[in-house]
Amino acid sequence: MTTDWQAWAEQMTTGLALIDGALRLSWINPTLAEWLGLGPRSAVGLPLAALLAEPTVAAQARMLLAERRAVQWRDLALRTADGGERRVDAALQGLAGDTLLLELHALADGHPAASPLSATLRGFAHEVKNPLAGLRGAAQLLQRRAGEADLKRLAGLVLEEADRLAALADRLLHQQGAPRLAAVNIHAMLERLVARLQAEPAPPRLRHDYDPSLPDIRADADRLLQLALNLARNALEAGARTLTLRTRAEHAVRLGDRVLRSALRVEFADDGPGVPAELRETLFEPLVSGRADGTGLGLAIAREIAREHGGELRYLPRATETVFALYLPLERAP
Questions:
Q1: What is the mean pLDDT of residues 294-314?
Q2: What is the DSSP letter of 202?
Q3: C-alpha to C-alpha distance for 298 and 94, rounded to whole angstroms
Q4: φ/ψ bin of 308: left (φ > 0), alpha (ψ from -120 to 50), beta (otherwise)
Q5: Strand, helix or coil at 13?
Q6: For 193-212, what is each residue's pLDDT tens digit?
Q7: pLDDT tens digit sequence for 4-41
Q8: Dihedral over Cα of 327, 328, 329, 334: its sign
Q9: Which residues belong to any copy of the Histidine kinase domain (predicted)?
């Protein structure tokens, strides 16, 4: 039986696998199956050492089972079924019992790259289009018949969101999974976020602290909005009542192996309880959540979107507020 988190994990473009106490694969997601050139069931039982061409992987995995800490590797060779290899960054962390989670990020020219679109994700996109069409039709009818301006505005929001999701589904179905970069005004994107949050049943108090001198960036506005929604909803579900949105330019910022002359920093600060100390090191890993009913995927997906844009997502512990900071390049290579 597929669990809720496995259903979500099957939609991610990150390669994911569960490793048992004998250091053999017990499950992989469709993305990793495509990279390996294997069916998900065919991979079950393969030893971890057969995947990653690094002599210390097995030894460090055994230490992880004993010490319950995370291990990371940079630029490893992932062996594929046809005898080839793919360069990846890898992270391994302990879950319940003797189960380990392996997370792989494909590299291209030294930087994370989007993985091939899985058949599962294309199927999901296909299935979601019919309900979206019905939702859009109902919203159009409501917009025409509503007498109150507020109801017309809310119906317009439903229409806009349905169109955005339909466009995303179309991109997936046509295998155009990479971000569609265009000039984006970061404050206009944040105002779209504000409109969504104000339509929530219990909207938070929203504060703005924008730097109006910031230039446009090259980005996919819809994906950045998804990232922002994930962060905002995480904060609300954790008990925050006030959300502050800040934008700044920052100089000499290190993102991975690069040092950028200048970067955009977008802060999502809230008055919630903060992140427990025991979760901070693995906060952005899939399946890590501070809530009993959480899937642990919101932050993992948000980080994936940030990396698609050549950026990074970080947790900044502060005494008076909980802050997640998105860093994006203000300078891009030609």
A1: 78
A2: S
A3: 19
A4: alpha
A5: coil
A6: 999 898 877 888 999 999 99
A7: 566 666 666 678 888 888 889 999 888 888 888 888 78
A8: positive
A9: 123-332
When the pLDDT of each residue in the chain is averaged and rounded to a whole number, the result is 78
DSSP 229-266: HHHHHHHHHTT--EEEEEEEEEEEEEETTEEEEEEEEE
Domain 4-112: homologous superfamily in CATH: PAS domain (3.30.450.20)
Q: Is the pLDDT of residue 126 over 70?
A: no
Helix (H/G/I), strand (E/B), else coil: 228: helix
d(CA 228, CA 268): 8
**C-alpha span between 144 and 323 (Å, rounded):** 41
Domain ranges of the chain: 4-112, 119-173, 182-329
- Whether the per-residue pLDDT at 302 is higher than 80: the answer is yes
How long, in residues, is the chain? Answer: 334
Same fold, 4-112 and 182-329: no
Cα distance between residue 235 and residue 271, in whole Å: 8
Domain 182-329, CATH 3.40.1180.10 — does that match? no
Cα 212 → chain centroid: 27
Question: What is d(CA 246, CA 252) in angstroms, rounded to the nearest whole number?
Answer: 19
Distance CA 224, CA 217 (A): 11
| Secondary structure of 32-87 as H, E, C letters | HHHHHCCCHHHHCCCEHHHHECCCCHHHHHHHHHHHCCCEEEEEEEEECCCCCEEE
Angle between helices 186-198 and 149-173 (to 10 degrees): 120
